[in-house]
Amino acid sequence: MGIITQTLTRTDTPMKIKEKRLRLNMTQKELADAVGMPKFGDRTIRRWESGETLPSPLEYSAIMDFPEKAPFQNKRNAKYKMIDLFAGIGGTRLGFYQTGNVNSVFTSEIDKFACKTYKANFGDEPQGDITQIETSEIPDHDILVGGFPCQAFSQAGKKLGFEDTRGTLFFEIARILKDKRPKSFLLENVKNLKTHDKGRTFKVIMKTLEDLDYEVQHILFKAKDFGVPQNRERIYIVGFDKHQVKNCKDFQFPFNFHRSTLVGNILDKTVDDKYTISDALWEGHRRRKAEHKVKGNGFGYSLFNAESQYTNTISARYYKDGSEILIEQKGKNPRKLTPREAGRLQGFPENYIIPVSDTQAYKEFGNSVAVPVIHAIAEEILKVLDKKL
Asked: Residue 211: which of 177, 245, 180 has the closest Cα?
């Protein structure tokens, strides 16, 4: 804590703050949000870097102590290798990392902000568009994971198999499975995948995976059953290569997992006023909810508090108005979750680094996965692969 007691001067403090920010590859806005500064904190950092004003020792310490080393780098002696497709910010990789036995050898993600967050936490620079990467460029691996975007397949095809998936992002997964033959895979998607395009999309996906000689199972899980207070329903598809994993039929999805949850467990004790929604936004929320009620539907904002068992599903659009998850506050308007609280709602650990603005962080966590669900499934996958060894 010696850094807090040192004397800050206009000679070296501006330079040190700027050098730190540049090492972190952050904008002034990103750094301000990352260290929890109030609204317009980027202007304050701009003044600090120009030498107009000086931070307090505590403020300076918050910046200089911000972690620069990726906390979830590959382990030295992991048994298995995985690749992470449509990786986002690495929630699926994190679930496998937590087993202690899986290293990632390849990542693909196209969103530049997600890539920044991914690199800050895992130390790897994700590759770009998977459609532009040949399978020969992808390292051999034991496990493939991916949360592919859901697209309808062309009605022109009649085979309902591999060829019908061309032109979709699922095809990228199928071609890698076909060419690289990993022992196992885990795919994650929204629960509506099963009914998408009148059920045809899911039918093609399952037939494609089975035609590739994988033993395939799928299940629908709710995140709240795995200890995070969010009613997030997702479909999980697990497969094993029948030729490499003779005991593939031994796989079972986790069970006896139902856990009690409480929203208060992920909430901070004190939160900056910048997360409290404005009078205009609050009035708009109430007006729209009243209009929906007249029409006989339940659309509109949703309020929660520390005693609530769980929240709605957080989405990538949460940054817009926070309507799906608003937290009650005594004597004032409701507030949005903070980015750190949004991360907790998805089961991300406290040392997960958030190196982007609040807006991007909301998008990233909303697009990500519930890490505890992934971890529980990963443990079951490894039980099967371990038996093979």
From this structure: 177
